[in-house]
Amino acid sequence: MKVLKRMKVKEYLEERRKFGTLHFTLIDPHKTNAENAEKIASILKDIGTDAFLLGGSIGVDPIEASEIALKLKETGLPVIIFPGDLTNIVKTADAILFMSLLNSENPYHIIGAQVQGAFLVKKYGLETLPTAYIVIGYGGAAGYMGMARPIPWDQVNISIAYALAANMLGMRYIYLEAGSGSPQHIPPEVIKSIKKTVPEAFLIVGGGIRTKEAALSVAEAGADAIVTGNIVEEDIKKAEEIIKAIKKKD
Ligand SMILES: CC(C)=CCC/C(C)=C/CC/C(C)=C/CC/C(C)=C/COP(=O)(O)OP(=O)(O)O
Ligand SMILES: O=P(O)(O)OC[C@@H](O)CO
Ligand SMILES: [Mg+2]
């Protein structure tokens, strides 16, 4: 595997997905400081996490976030901004999920924030990963702050139609979000149907994944990457188990 420094994040993700489901560790700068992030990063890198997502819905201090990004970068793994808003955009990251919350009721979260952030992203030289952000079910803080109209869990066809429309609009990455801390993760049948409809899309799935069984069911349904946030902060051993399970190290 080539080292990331000579590789674009997009190429790195494509290369890695050939070997199975990826794991993304989500770090929220509002909840984790640079020292703690460094510890988490070194533990989870050794177990096999593939990249770091950096972001939060609320209370992000861009100065702290840029310090955290620097620490995470020391692992050699990509640091990808997962923006809750403009304060999440920092120069020291490698890339950004340049995302539109497709099922928001507020155009600000569909195209407004992106217009406001575009010059900054360009100025910082961040690699952009064009992402459809689709909120399903619970929604959590992201759903609330992003004024999403979450798609009901059982309305599988509506979720498929969103993913198809995103793909037709040229969005390479599709993030299926159940909401941070969701009591339920994205149902496997939703993931399966979307994977079948848009097999070429890079499917990121997150929200409410807290056990290895849950992670495995999401991976087997066709997720290209699984995101875990809360469990990393609450019980790092469980996060390690999740990574080992999807990397088939158990
Ligand atoms: C600035 C650019 C390019 C885009 C704006 C991005 C959009 C559309 C944001 C609106 C939706 C939103 C608020 C997403 C948040 C995504 C995120 C960082 C989630 C991480 O989890 P938290 O929501 O912080 O969960 P906790 O409650 O566990 O802290
Ligand atoms: O914190 P959890 O529930 O793992 O959710 C992760 C992520 O999808 C939130 O945006
Ligand atoms: Mg958060």
Automatic annotation (TrEMBL):
**Cofactors per UniProt?**
Mg(2+)
Q: What class of enzyme is it?
A: transferase
Q: Name one Pfam family in it.
A: PcrB
Recorded metabolic or biological pathway in which this protein acts:
Membrane lipid metabolism; glycerophospholipid metabolism
Q: Where does Mg(2+) bind?
A: 28, 57
Report the locations given in the UniProt record: Cytoplasm
**Might you name a Gene Ontology BP term for this protein?**
glycerophospholipid biosynthetic process
Tell me which GO cellular component terms the UniProt record holds.
cytoplasm
The superkingdom listed in its UniProt entry is Archaea
Which annotated residues bind sn-glycerol 1-phosphate? Answer: 175-181, 207-208, 229-230
The protein's annotated catalytic reaction(s) are: sn-glycerol 1-phosphate + (2E,6E,10E)-geranylgeranyl diphosphate = sn-3-O-(geranylgeranyl)glycerol 1-phosphate + diphosphate
Keywords noted in UniProt = Cytoplasm, Lipid biosynthesis, Lipid metabolism, Magnesium, Metal-binding, Phospholipid biosynthesis, Phospholipid metabolism, Transferase
Q: Which residues form a coiled coil?
A: none
GO-annotated molecular function: heptaprenylglyceryl phosphate synthase activity; magnesium ion binding; phosphoglycerol geranylgeranyltransferase activity
- Enzyme Commission code: 2.5.1.41
- Similarity field: Belongs to the GGGP/HepGP synthase family. Group II subfamily.
Task: Briefly state the protein's biological role.
Answer: Prenyltransferase that catalyzes the transfer of the geranylgeranyl moiety of geranylgeranyl diphosphate (GGPP) to the C3 hydroxyl of sn-glycerol-1-phosphate (G1P). This reaction is the first ether-bond-formation step in the biosynthesis of archaeal membrane lipids.
The identity of this protein, by name, is Geranylgeranylglyceryl phosphate synthase
Organism the protein comes from: Fervidicoccus fontis
